[in-house]
Design brief:
6-stranded mixed β-sheet; 11 strands; D-Maltodextrin-Binding Protein, domain 2; 5-stranded mixed β-sheet; globular
Length: 325
């Protein structure tokens, strides 16, 4: 009798959860939503996150605020969301650096990418360009490699932070070209680009969106794109291999994640509404301006993608010997 009663209670609990789960998605959000961004306000990922946030605010009839929290290799932003209530009202945008690279660079992280966060939706993918001062000494890839070989540890390169795709890509560039250079990480990406334009730092791998203002002003040059093929939107910019460098790929992506334990119905709603926003013509045009490629999909697809990326970067970190400072 007790066993039958326990089974009945269990079945009733399952039925209750099944009925409540869809309801949670229907009532979300019931107040303002905050999206933490481990980037400075002027960085392309933060700017695009605001574009998506504006769309969601209209769909949800609730404020959706993007909170820039640069620095600390993303630790500050991720730690804030890790501790947030798992109800979908506090989210974080992350790149491959935060969930696929950092676990292999740092012996200890203040978060566990798998246990602390749930995948929600992939926003975009983007290749990186090798950028240098338009009037500087590294306007071609062979010139950069020759200078680095002539004076080991004299040429410097910037990155947005330790463990970023630009940092790891630069380490791979050193490995493949047999050079040794100086890594200069920056908390604020805008400062890094000004430093390159002024000649204080030699070069960097950068997304188009982040370097765009100084490229348009003629102070920075897109020397080459670290991709297998030229971009259709920038057909005059050669690949690294075409420009006389190694045949390598440096890319990044941006995704939305929620605190682990967030109801699946809420995650599914955010996923569906973000995917809908990504398909709107003005958002598509915005993506094109930044050199981003929309990359929508389900939460499960994002989870599987992150697993594959983690394996790829584990091998890259081991091969290059890159490590956090």
């Amino acid at each position: 009798m007790k066993r039958d009663r326990a089974a009945c209670v269990f079945l009733l609990a399952i039925a209750w959860l099944a009925s409540v789960s869809p309801a949670l998605g229907q009532t979300f959000p019931n107040h303002a939503v905050k999206i933490e961004a481990p980037y400075s306000a002027g960085a392309a990922p933060a700017i695009f996150a605001r574009v998506v946030a504006d769309k969601l605010a209209k769909t949800w009839s609730q404020p959706v605020v993007v909170e820039p929290r640069p620095g600390g290799s993303g630790f500050v932003a991720l730690e804030a969301v890790r501790k947030a209530p798992p109800d979908g009202h506090e989210l974080v945008v992350v790149s491959n650096a935060h969930v696929a690279i950092n676990p292999w660079l740092y012996k200890q992280l203040p978060y566990d990418a798998d246990k602390d966060f749930a995948p929600v939706v992939l926003l975009y993918r983007t290749p990186f360009f090798l950028v240098a001062a338009a009037d500087g000494p590294y306007r071609t890839v062979p010139a950069l490699i020759a200078a680095a070989k002539a004076k080991p540890e004299a040429v410097s390169y910037g990155s947005s932070y330790v463990g970023s795709p630009s940092h790891l890509g630069s380490a791979e560039f050193e490995y493949l070209t047999g050079t040794k250079m100086i890594h200069v990480p920056y908390k604020d990406q805008s400062q890094m680009y000004v430093a390159i334009a002024n000649g204080d730092v030699g070069w960097a791998f950068s997304t188009l969106g982040s370097a765009l203002p100084l490229v348009k002003s003629g102070r920075l040059k897109l020397v080459a794109v670290a991709a297998k093929h030229r971009l259709a939107s920038l057909p005059d910019v050669p690949t690294l291999a075409e420009a006389g460098g190694p045949d390598m790929v440096v890319d990044s992506w941006l995704a939305v994640m929620a605190p682990r334990g967030t109801p699946q119905a809420v995650i599914d709603k955010i996923n569906a509404d973000v995917n809908r926003a990504l398909g709107e013509p003005d958002v598509q045009e915005n993506l094109k301006t930044f050199g981003f490629e929309a990359a929508s999909g389900t939460p499960a697809q994002l989870g599987a993608f992150i697993v594959g990326e983690s394996k790829r970067f584990a091998e890259l970190v081991e091969r290059t010997g890159a490590k956090a400072d």
